[in-house]
């Protein structure tokens, strides 16, 4: 039901308020199916792309109202009631609250756990969420700590977590450093995926696209050809403003990759769908959230 409602909303056959009412009803009923909430979290991610700057506080408050009670039930740590899918739900909910929701308590707890990681290692199931939350509210000091952990990891999993988290910083200078790392230091099989994450970064994505355009001719020489469509998948997030999306689509069509033709076509189709959604719903999105959710801050 939630998947169909979201698909209909994306296609313009249902209203955002319908999806929000369904999501609130699921939250009120205590729904904990990760498949259900992955759809809602994905929708909130697109909302985060298209909402005007003046609506961002309302969006954040709406996310806290919707997901806060669920996070309280899940808690930060494993419980005897968990099943094998609970950890993925816990991670997604905490990440969304700490990033899009800018939840002060979630951010503070993530910062505390990160600061205590030497004595209490981060739990593997929520480690990536903790790092993304810290990065969302972090600066140069946190970036340097992430970079040091990436360069001297305790495990291969830790190396990958810190590498990916370097792309979560929104600061323009830090994002530029991460792009430079991808083009120089990062292993060639991993670098395209790091660039993809930079493109997905709401704040750093547009500037990253400019760097991608500038380095386009270098990519086939540096990276495996089958990784380039996966890298390009990040442009799906560049749906606002519409002029940027038009620029992206025109460039990609004029500079075809040697591999991944159909995949690239699908990426551009999804980009166009997100642009259309933003043009229909962006201006009234926060009003819809205020109509459905109790926005008490």
Describe it.
It is a single chain. With 297 residues, this protein is an all-alpha fold. The chain is 67% helix and 0% strand. The chain has 17 helices and no strands. The longest helix has 21 residues, at 261-281. It is globular. It starts with a helix and ends in a 5-residue tail after the last helix. The mean pLDDT is 95.
In short:
This protein has 297 residues and is mostly helical.
Shape: globular
Cα-atom radius of gyration = 19 Å
Question: What is the helix/strand order?
Answer: HHHHHHHHHHHHHHHHH
Fraction of helical residues? 55-70%
Number of strands: 0
Strand content: under 5%
Average pLDDT metric = 95
Write the layout of secondary structure elements.
Blueprint: H1 2-10, H2 16-28, H3 34-50, H4 56-74, H5 86-98, H6 104-115, H7 127-136, H8 140-151, H9 156-165, H10 172-184, H11 191-200, H12 205-215, H13 219-222, H14 228-232, H15 242-254, H16 261-281, H17 285-292
Helix pairs in contact: 1-2, 2-17, 3-5, 3-16, 4-5, 4-17, 5-7, 6-7, 7-9, 8-9, 10-11, 11-12, 15-16
What are its keywords?
297 residues; mainly alpha; 17 helices; 0% strand
């Amino acid at each position: 039901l939630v998947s169909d409602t979201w698909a209909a909303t994306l296609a313009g056959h249902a209203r955002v308020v319908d999806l929000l009412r369904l999501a609130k009803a699921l939250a009120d009923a205590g729904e904990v199916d990760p498949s259900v909430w992955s759809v809602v979290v994905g929708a909130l991610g697109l909302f985060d792309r298209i909402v005007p700057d003046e609506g961002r506080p309302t969006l954040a408050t709406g996310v806290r109202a919707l997901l806060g009670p669920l996070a309280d039930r899940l808690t930060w740590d494993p419980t005897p009631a968990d099943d094998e899918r609970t950890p993925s739900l816990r991670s997604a909910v905490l990440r969304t609250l700490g990033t899009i929701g800018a939840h002060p308590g979630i951010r503070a707890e993530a910062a505390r756990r990160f600061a205590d990681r030497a004595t209490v290692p981060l739990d593997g199931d929520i480690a990536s969420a903790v790092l993304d939350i810290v990065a969302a509210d972090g600066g140069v000091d946190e970036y340097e700590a992430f970079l040091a952990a990436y360069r001297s990891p305790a495990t291969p999993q830790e190396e990958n977590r810190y590498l990916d988290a370097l792309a979560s910083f929104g600061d323009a200078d830090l994002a530029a450093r991460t792009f430079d790392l991808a083009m120089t230091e990062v292993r060639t099989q991993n670098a395209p995926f790091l660039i993809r994450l930079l493109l997905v970064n709401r704040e750093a994505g547009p500037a990253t696209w400019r760097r991608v355009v500038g380095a386009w001719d270098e990519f086939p020489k540096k990276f495996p050809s089958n990784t380039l469509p996966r890298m390009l998948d990040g442009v799906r997030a560049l749906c606002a403003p519409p002029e940027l999306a038009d620029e992206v689509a025109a460039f990609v069509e004029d500079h075809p990759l040697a591999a991944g033709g159909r995949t690239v076509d699908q990426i551009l189709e999804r980009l166009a769908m997100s642009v259309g959604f933003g043009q229909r719903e962006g201006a009234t999105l926060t009003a819809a959230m205020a109509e459905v959710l109790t926005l008490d801050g």
